Amino acid sequence: MATKADLPSFDSYFVPTVHVLKARGGSATIDELEEDVAENMNLSEDVLAVPHGDGPRTQFAYELAWVRTYLKKDEVADNSERGVWSLTARGLSLSDAETASIPQRVRAADYAKRRQRADQEIENGVQTPAISGGEEESTELSWKEKLLDALLEMRSDGFERLCQRILRESSFTKVEVTGRAGDGGIDGNGILRVQLVSFQVLFQSKRWKGSVGPSVVRDFRGAMVGRADKGLIITTGTFTADARREATRDGAPAIDLVDGDTLADLLKQLSLGVRTRMVEEIEVEPAFFSTI
Q1: What are the pLDDT digits (tens) for 261-285?
Q2: Hey, what CATH topology would domain 154-270 get?
Q3: What are the backbone dihedrals phi and psi of residue 276, each rounded to the nearest 5 degrees, phi first?
Q4: Residue 169: half-sphere exposure toward Cβ, Cα within 13 Å
Q5: Distance of alpha carbon 172 from alpha carbon 128, whole angstroms
Q6: Which residues have CB under 8 Å from 165's CB, separation 6+?
Q7: Which of 40, 41, 102 is nearest to 69 (CA)?
Q8: Given this structure, which CATH class describes domain 1-152?
Q9: So where are the chain's domains?
Q10: Which of the 8 DSSP states describes residue 10?
């Protein structure tokens, strides 16, 4: 069984990630990035399934999230509200050597900011404990980790009702939780109306740690044949690359997949169990007073 030690070093992800973005025309979704980077680096399903600590996400997904954060800090890439990541003009022209040095540049910039803040605090007579780079990084991703941990603590029927609420908040109507034993994993159904067209949708909720494999997708598709137009699987974990390929296999009804990372973003967007606080930052401008 693979362990964290079998994954590539963090710094080695940057060049493949930028290559993938360039190959896709300069932009990609998180799912596309993860699938293409894994293929580019020849990572096995066993390695990709290594969990991050005790949480539901994989170590690979966790590290790729930090790669994207570093790319944004270095103004190489940016993301839209819909979770699409795109290269900036600078990112499109970056050489492999310049891409490989992104981690060093970001760490140096973060250290310089911390030093400047510490010097200002000392100058103002206030000294707080130094913040290490690891602590600063963990703060940025901690809300998703905390949210996914809270979801894993829910009862199974509670998570099904949460998925029902998410669908209702996302414009589905007549959303019902069925969850009958022996029903092929179908937990509920609803109707999605898009302008003049309505779709009958069956959904499955999986409050899982780790990865959901292709057999789950196949079984769910078999259960929904002849009963619905679309299928939707929602999990707190991740989907393997084989599961994503199975979900969009040619000649078979497509099934939409929502993993833990996407689920967290969706809950934030819908303000369900996640509250965003806007922090007011006040800055004094001494030069103003000297001109009076």
Answers
A1: 899 999 999 999 998 887 778 888 8
A2: Trna Endonuclease; Chain: A, domain 1 (3.40.1350)
A3: -100, 120
A4: 13
A5: 49
A6: 272
A7: 102
A8: mainly alpha
A9: 1-152, 154-270
A10: G
